[in-house]
Amino acid sequence: QSALTQPRSVSGSPGQSVTISCTGTSSDVGGYNYVSWYQQHPGKAPKLMIYDVSKRPSGVPDRFSGSKSGNTASLTISGLQAEDEADYYCCSYAGSYTLFGGGTKLTVL
Amino acid sequence: QVQLQESGPGLVKPSQTLSLTCTVSGGSISSGGYYWSWIRQHPGKGLEWIGYIYYSGSTYYNPSLKSRVTISVDTSKNQFSLKLSSVTAADTAVYYCARDGSGNRIFDLWGRGTLVTVSS
Questions:
Q1: Å between B51 CA and nearest CA of chain A
Q2: In which band, very low, low, confident or very high, does the pLDDT at A1 lie, cut at 50, 70 and 90?
């Protein structure tokens, strides 16, 4: 099983929107609605931002949203803020496997 | 609120067994409904799920690590543990314990992580 594919980096200016993609296969992202997204600041543990493709845990701003089309899931962050600068990882249930993406570094310009 | 804290040696020799413990505070590991996982992150790299244990003791491991991994639970101490045998330098990583509330690999609570270096 290969890791899910994410862009290595994305960037945006404060107030703008950015979208991070996460591409898998029909055996993982495309086969289950159990895609989650995690935010990780340097030296910190990951934090759950989106689960079940598009649901937000309590306390996560509604600027964060998730979606899925076919084998690709996406995380969109609108109204970018400086504190959104971090690494973002997608994760998908895949039966016997649990797959993470390689991570995307978001830079807020 | 519930918190997780990893503990264990930060340095392990090659071929030996890595042993870590995660202590759950602010809630009972036996309350049910939760799957207690280990996840690792190689330096500067992405995340890798190692496996989980349910409070009843049932386990599920990453097939790629299954032959070397054992996860156990001690409900009396509110802890669960990881053992990874025959380690090599490739097992050097930050090891996190995490809570999965659904069994669908949605990790809603994480420990701070502990760096384990494999070196002689």
A1: 9
A2: low
Mapped onto helix, strand or coil, the DSSP state of residue B58 is coil
A37 vs A75: CA distance, rounded Å: 7
Tell me the H-state helices in A1-109: none
The answer to whether the CB atoms of A34 and B110 lie below 8 A apart is: no
By a Cβ cutoff of 8 Å, what residues of chain A touch chain B? 1, 3, 32, 34, 36, 38, 44-48, 51-52, 57, 89, 91-93, 96-98, 100-103
- Note whether B107 contacts A3, CB cutoff 8 Å: no
Q: What is the pLDDT of residues B13-52, one digit of tens each?
A: 999 999 999 999 999 998 878 999 999 999 988 999 999 9
Asked if A91 contacts A38 with a C-beta cutoff of 8 angstroms, the reply is yes
> If you measure CA to CA, which chain B residue comes closest to A5?
B46
> In the A/B pair of chains, how many CB contacts fall below 8 A?
55
Nearest to B91 by CA among B63, B106, B69: B69
Q: How confident is the model at residue A33 (pLDDT cuts 50, 70, 90)?
A: very high
DSSP three-state, residue B27: coil
Residues A44 and A85: their CA atoms lie apart, in Å, by 13
Which residue from A1, A47, A91 is facing B105, i.e. has the nearest CB? A91
Q: How far apart are CA A96 and CA A51, in angstroms?
A: 19
